[in-house]
Design goal:
CdiI_2; 0% strand; mainly alpha; CdiI immunity protein domain-containing protein; globular
Length: 105
């Protein structure tokens, strides 16, 4: 596996889905944590997160394995009822929608 520099994605997962995720939102749901990130982050962070997701998905030969190698100590999407690919697509969709919504105002 290539060692990609995915700082924004790493920070996002650690802060919003790591061991202290309940400080952000105490539910076991994924979307409220993404929504909190969207409310609290600068536009540049949103674009950085999208770029990191695209880089990981485009460059990975085995997305699930690479995701778990990088972030499995912090966050296992399967414990939240999803896969790494589905999780990343959900995050990508919500961030993209938020950016489009902001630009249309």
């Amino acid at each position: 596996m290539k060692r990609l520099n995915l700082n924004e994605l790493g920070c996002f997962i650690t802060i919003y889905f790591g061991q202290d995720y309940d400080l952000i939102d105490d539910s076991d749901e994924i979307e409220p944590k993404i929504d909190a990130f969207l409310q609290e982050s600068h536009r540049a962070n949103l674009y950085g997160l999208l770029a990191d997701i695209d880089l990981l998905t485009d460059e990975s030969d085995d997305l699930g394995a690479e995701f778990m190698e990088r972030y499995g100590d912090e966050f296992d999407p399967e414990l939240w009822g999803t896969t790494p690919a589905e999780f990343l697509q959900l995050v990508r969709d919500k961030v993209s929608y938020a950016l489009r919504d902001e630009e249309s105002r």
